[in-house]
Design a protein that fits this description.
The chain is an alpha/beta fold. It has two domains: 4-124 and 328-354, NAD(P)-binding Rossmann-like Domain (Rossmann fold), CATH 3.40.50.720; 125-326 and 363-381, Dihydrodipicolinate Reductase, domain 2 (2-Layer Sandwich), CATH 3.30.360.10. The chain is 32% helix and 25% strand. The strands form three sheets. It has a nine-stranded mixed β-sheet with strand order 16-15-14-13-7-12-11-8-17. The chain has a six-stranded parallel β-sheet with strand order 3-2-1-4-5-6, with helices on both faces. Helix 1 packs across helix 9 (326-346). It starts with a strand and ends with a strand. The model has no long low-confidence stretch (mean pLDDT 96).
Length: 384
């Protein structure tokens, strides 16, 4: 069977990750890139051996050879690009967020269902092998009923007032920054592991650095610019956030996220407390799941394809004892997506077990509730 021809829109950090992981997918071939920064796109295409380069996502979508689209562009164009890709008959794997509002993400879900589009969204942290193991243990009843949970996601890439990103511009990044960027990953993680939905939110969104020096030249996300000309700009979105959360079974939890936490690079942690035992997972030690017990010894379970619950061992693609990493988590998600896509194209039955546009819409609804809670100072119900 011929390979699916893939077009990637956006060639910054995460776009490059998509391209590199797609090279590991047997049924996929990246044939085109698009970026408004044509110089960056051409350099990336030359480096990674991609034959076609377009100046915009719209141009790439005009290439009828492209069958699958990966949307890695900035937030403010996600809705239009995802909509156009769906309406033109392409299957789509998007970065989050799907859009800037829950109203727009709901429209994308509707369109995807109408056109029978296979969709995915890159909530990759759930694809570490022991995170899959934790979810499987919850499903089989090991945890018991979820009582409470807590977690954090900390980074320091916006630590200095000279650190700047398009994510800090509401016109491009949306109404919130860190709670949307990092908070959406935590929301997906807690809902995936517990099997419950976030039902209510109380939020405190704060801007630690209200004025920043924005470089006059374009700067890629997570890069560091030394020297150069700056202009001082007011920052209206959060670089710190704390949320109180309620799940749909009444369990309470809390989450703190911050991008000005010196020394923390990608420090994501989730702890879940059940009626039988507790689980803890940290991205700093991503290959281990801690299992806490009251009446017998605690346990640290290390990823193992031989020892994990049925259905989760396939995500540990290396022999036991060889640690998996971030690229492997992204690969696991992409592999699930492309296996389903191959089945769809062949007319075989398949199951969507990966995060899709509906998952992305649910994340947008949680974000919308957090922004509304900050405005009103009250608990806000998450609207479906």
């Amino acid at each position: 069977m011929s390979k699916l021809k893939v077009g990637v829109i956006g060639t910054g950090y995460i776009g490059t990750v998509h391209i590199e992981i797609l090279r590991r997918i047997p049924g996929a071939e990246v044939v085109a890139l698009a970026d408004s920064n044509e110089k960056l796109a051409r350099a990336t295409a030359e480096k990674l051996g991609v034959p076609k380069v377009y100046k915009s996502g719209e141009e790439l979508l005009g290439d009828r050879d492209i069958e699958v689209v990966h949307d890695c562009a900035p937030n403010n164009v996600h809705f239009d690009l995802n909509r156009m890709a769906v309406e033109s008959g392409r299957d789509v794997l998007s970065e989050k967020p799907l859009s800037l509002t829950a109203r727009e993400s709901a429209e994308l879900v509707r369109l995807a269902e109408k056109h029978k589009t296979l969709t995915g969204i890159n909530f990759c942290y759930r694809y570490y092998p022991v995170v899959q193991e934790a979810a499987a243990r919850v499903r089989r009843g090991d945890l018991g009923e979820v009582r409470a949970f807590m977690g954090h996601f900390l980074q320091d890439w916006l630590f200095y007032d000279t650190d700047y990103s398009w994510r800090l511009d509401p016109a491009v990044g949306g109404a919130a920054n860190v709670v949307a960027d990092l908070g959406s990953h935590f929301a997906d993680l807690v809902q995936f592991v517990t099997g419950r939905k976030i039902a209510e939110v109380m939020s405190d969104l704060h801007t630690c650095i209200p004025k920043r020096k924005k470089p006059k030249a374009d700067v890629l996300a997570f890069s560091t610019q030394v020297g150069g000309e700056y202009q001082e700009v007011d920052i209206k979105v959060d670089d710190y956030a704390s949320l109180f959360l309620k799940l749909d079974n009444g369990a309470h939890g809390s989450f703190t996220t911050c991008q000005v936490a010196a020394g923390h690079k990608v420090d994501l942690e989730l702890r879940v407390f059940g009626t039988k035992e507790s689980y803890a997972w940290s991205h700093v030690h991503p290959n281990d799941l801690w299992i806490g017990r009251r009446d017998r010894g605690n346990e640290t379970f290390s990823e193992s394809s031989q020892l994990q619950a049925p259905g989760t061992g396939k995500y540990d693609t290396l022999p036991t004892g060889h640690p998996m990493g971030y690229h492997d988590a992204v690969y696991n998600l992409f592999r699930d997506f492309y296996e389903a896509l191959a089945a769809k194209r062949a007319g075989r039955p398949f199951e969507v077990r990966f995060p899709n546009f509906r998952t992305g819409h649910e994340a947008m609804c949680v974000l919308g509730a957090a922004v509304e809670s900050q405005r009103t100072g009250t608990w806000v119900k998450v609207q479906g």
